[in-house]
Each structure stands twice: as C-alpha cells, then as structure tokens.
Write a structure and sequence with these properties.
The chain has helices spanning 7-36, 39-65, 80-108, 116-144, 147-176, 181-208, 215-226, 260-275, 297-302, and strands spanning 233-241, 246-254, 281-289. By secondary structure, the chain is mostly helical. It has a three-stranded mixed sheet with strand order 1-2-3, covered by helices on one side. The chain is elongated.
C-alpha cells in the first residue's frame, strides 16, 4: 500500500478499483450463465451486479464523507459512509431473497446444464480476482478505518465464498451428475448473502444511531483523563463513531480556585490526551469546579431500565 497517499486518496482508490473489478466480473459471469444455464452462476452474477451498484454507492459515499465541515454540517460528513453501507446491506438482502426463491424452484424442477467446463474456468478466474480485491481492501481498511470500504469488502468476501460454492456445484454437476447440486449451491449462497446483509446493516446502524463506543474504549478514555495533571474527576463522558472520526465529549472537574486560564490549560491538555488515543478524534471538554452538584447525564442514564 503506497505510504505517500492520504487516507482520503486510499479510500477513493479502493472504491474505483472495486467498481472496475465488479463491473468486469459481472459481465463475465452473465456470459457464463447464458452459456451454461447454471442457477448458481446466475446467483453469483446477481451478487456481482449488486456489487457494481454497491461499489458505486460506496464511491459516492466516500467522496461525500471526505468533504470538510461546512456551515450546514459542522460535525463533518463522515456518516455518509454509514449510509452507503446501509444501502449496500439492503441491496444484498433483496438479491438474496429473490435468488433464494428461484433456487427453490430449480430444486423442485431441476434443469440440465451445458458447457460446465467453461463455467468452471470462469468461476476459478473470478475467485482469484475477488480474493485479490479483498486483500487490497483489507489493507485500506486497516489504515483508514473506512466503514464503507469495510462494507464493500464484506461483499467481496461473500463473492469469494459464493464462487467457491458455485465451483463445487459445477464440479458435482459435471463429474458426478448431481442434477440438484446447482440449485442447492445457489440456495446456500442466498442464505449466506442474507446473513452478511444483516451484519452490515447492524454495523451501519450503530453509527447512524450514535451508539457509544464499547466499554473498554470508554474505560481507556476515562483512565487517560484521570492521569492528566490537574484533573480531579470526570463525568458525563459521551462518545460516538462519526465514520471518518470518533467524537468524544466529557465534563472534567478541576480545582475551583484556579484561574480561568489555568483551568483552560488543563482542559486543553485533557482534550489532546484523548485525541492521542485515536487515529482521528474530535474531542470537547467542558470545564467544571470539582465537587459541583448539578444535573448529570450519568445520573439520567443510570436510571434507564
């Protein structure tokens, strides 16, 4: 992975590569399906078509999310990636249900296949291409933490599994004459696609609904703050994943006898400490005198069932 590229450039590059590869694979798979009549190849081609649409959505989402904060979006545009990921999940689920219905029909009324040798070679090549793309996207996600690229990668991990299932079905059809192997493989692929769509939608909704970071991350933030010189206590810690960055807000308690300037310096130091815990973070500290008795978010949350 080139070190001289920014995270935004890597996201854009990964989106473009995924779109080009997905478009090429869907054309080849449709050609193979027309030649063989394989429902499992049709399932793979449909999954590839979803990938083309999803990669287009990802490309648009990544570009929009990279926009800097503006007057109408002072928190930035990072959640566009989560929206893109949720759209992909819906597309994948719709394709899985439609192909599952077709697979059941083929299971009840099997259809003979033709040119299975050609179909086997096509699916082997598609598997290698998808595996290479997944490797590239994995490196990009590790460096950038992009939600949309991660969702797009999930599509291609599914594509690798889909291709392997298609390959097994075609091999059973060609060499053992199992007439229903093609439909069974397609049905299994549809179920796997639906399962992946569920996970992708859940991950995207965590961001869209401002779910807190996990308990370990919150504990790490609080521990780092309490180690800061001048910080006596911390309360009302709020966190959320904004897609391109983490947002952290908290109330920090200091000696009430300090000057405003001294307290401000402590708050600045606390913010920088938290920023150092994440690759990208927007941190806001609210300064309060130690021991203040006021209405707290922590108290309201603790009363929830």
């Amino acid at each position: 992975m080139p070190d001289n590229l920014s995270d935004g450039a890597l996201r854009r590059m990964a989106s473009i590569v995924a779109l080009v590869v997905a478009l090429g694979l869907v054309v080849i798979k449709v050609w193979a399906w027309l030649a063989t009549g394989s429902i499992s190849l049709l399932t793979s081609a449909a999954d590839g078509l979803v990938d083309v649409v999803a990669s287009t959505v990802t490309f648009a989402g990544v570009r929009y999310a990279a926009r800097p904060a503006d007057q109408g979006h002072r928190y930035g545009h990072g959640k566009a990636e989560a929206v893109a990921a949720f759209v992909q999940a819906l597309l994948l689920a719709a394709a899985a249900i439609g192909l599952g219905v077709e697979s059941v029909q083929r299971l009840i009324v099997p259809q003979a296949l033709s040119q299975t040798g050609f179909g086997i070679w096509v699916i082997v090549g598609s598997t290698l291409a998808a595996a290479g793309l997944v490797t590239m996207q994995t490196l990009v996600v590790k460096r950038t933490g992009s939600t949309a690229i991660a969702a797009d990668r999930a599509h291609y991990v599914t594509d690798v599994a889909v291709n392997l299932a298609v390959l097994i079905a075609l091999l059973l059809e060609r060499f053992l004459g199992w007439g229903r192997a093609d439909a069974i493989g397609a049905l299994a692929i549809s179920a796997y696609m639906l399962w992946n769509a569920r996970g992708m939608a859940a991950d995207a909704l965590f961001q869209l609904l401002d779910r807190e970071l996990d308990l370990d991350e919150r504990a790490r933030v609080e521990a780092a703050l309490l180690r800061c010189e001048g910080v006596q206590a911390v309360h009302d810690l709020r966190t959320r994943n904004g897609g391109d960055r983490v947002f952290v807000e908290f109330h920090v308690e200091v000696d009430g006898a300090l000057t405003v300037a001294a307290g401000h310096a402590i708050a600045d130091r606390a913010e920088k400490t938290v920023q150092g815990l994440f690759d990208a973070a927007d941190v806001t500290a609210h300064l309060e005198p130690a021991g203040i008795d006021d209405e707290r978010l922590d108290d309201l949350v603790s009363k929830q069932p």
